[in-house]
């Protein structure tokens, strides 16, 4: 291999490099001790090809084996390699300069000791290459500075003014790859405590640069087929469809004041061109503006508003589109400062939903969804009704990208508007059901989500014969079309789970086949898991998501149908299956199992009661806060079981009480888990006050703190009654706390 590393053909050199790296990465670096010294010696060759070939191989080894190179296993070769690489930063060949920086860059995030020992020389050399004529060199310099910002900001602070000026230039580099690397700098800087201090002055220069970067490039438009306006009849290719991951059911309590913003709000930064999955300058610029808006809040607006008007009303669609994206990107951070302008801007954006360019229509959907909270806070006729009317038209757009953006935006609007949508349900359902016959594969999956979110948002208001008649036939038709092993079942099952919970008794005519199929899915998955564990060479591991989604739909049925689910449970072996699922190695399976156990306990306890002696020890061992959601659902299920068991809970109190008290006193425990733990301790005390009261002093203070913001409901009521009963048994437990 090494003899041919200097071959005249760059292709052969690269192939040899890959061969060497493959051998090295298979753990053979220890078996080939002379490899690294030989490659480092070849760097000194007068022959360019040999030097470049050796560097190419070293760069690949550094990429694949960075950790190993910084370990004692190889006698810390980096002590020699890093100073060697630094010498080549000044080489006359740009290709070799680029290799040298790329090699060192692999060790920044690792904080390799050999690099930390040479950090000042490294930074000095980077500055010397800052205006290199080669774009690849400039790109690697930018990449190095971005990583150093994360791991050695102390070394950059003295030079921060110059670095910021440099990055402002590079973010406008004529080479888009360089500009993209430089743009990452602003994203990383926004995470640093010094951001506000160092960026306050340059902000006036930075904002127009980021805004300019948010415009679609010509290549973006080609890749996105931006000139194709109508494509609804073209089937999706399978690679268009991203893998979906089911989010298992977690039981939560309602608070006095619900959060204004969804916790996962931050991840939809640039949903408009999702299918252009490569991270590009547009996406990076938008993400940077978003995080900077969250840092500077309304202080950002004086630099932005003068630009925004020119963009939003620009005759060129590409520029207008970028203005709408800017408006969406700042929505979260600058909401307060934007409020005075929204009465004028929202109608303009609603108008943009009818723009002749599909890419303008789709970005308008996304940006409007970012302001949905404000729209819903105004009188409905002013903005909600016109927005909803136009979004529903866009759900039936002839362009697939617009359909997708409109469907996602409508789901966000549903979450914000909740029961405000009830007067328009008939109109909404007509549109969503019509979309069933119109959508290709990918958007169908998003449509399920919009329907599920609608059901979650309007709840029992959906339980009207007229609405059920519209909604259920297309859902059941899809349900019948899909095979048990089709992954499209995931979003459909999730959707049906929400619908079943909302429809309550209205779901009764459809419940039997749905229930049966869920039980079959659980059974099949468990059987496959058993065969795989016994003969892993003959069978494939099952996809347990099928089982998780099925368990969650069974929970939805139990919650929605209440006591009506009893006959279905009686005619199935669900309790036996549940016993197995509760002991599964996969946390998400256990999480969904405990949610179902709690719902079945509420709906038909007569079928759960015979299993309690077997179930309680499993619940006790799952009170482990290392698995937050599993622990949360197990805790909630125990509380529900208490209320059904009454005094018969007494033999099981000691199995769970110590763990619950430990959890409620644990620092940094998520609020949801603390609340469910407090409810369950209260309920245990309600049914077995003599057993729980002696521990009152150990949990009363965090107990009160956890439940003070919970809305008054049945669960809170029973927990407080339990506390009162325990105080009756052990008044000293509360008196002692007051003295502390």
TrEMBL record:
Composition bias type Acidic residues, residue spans: 259-275
Entry keywords, A to Z: Cytoplasm, Nucleus, Protein transport, Repeat, Transport
Xref: SUPFAM superfamilies: ARM repeat
Compartments in which it is found: Cytoplasm; Nucleus
Entry keyword Protein transport: yes
Family: Belongs to the importin beta family. Importin beta-2 subfamily.
Listed PANTHER family: IMPORTIN BETA
Identification of the protein by name: Transportin-1
Lineage: Eukaryota, Metazoa, Chordata, Craniata, Vertebrata
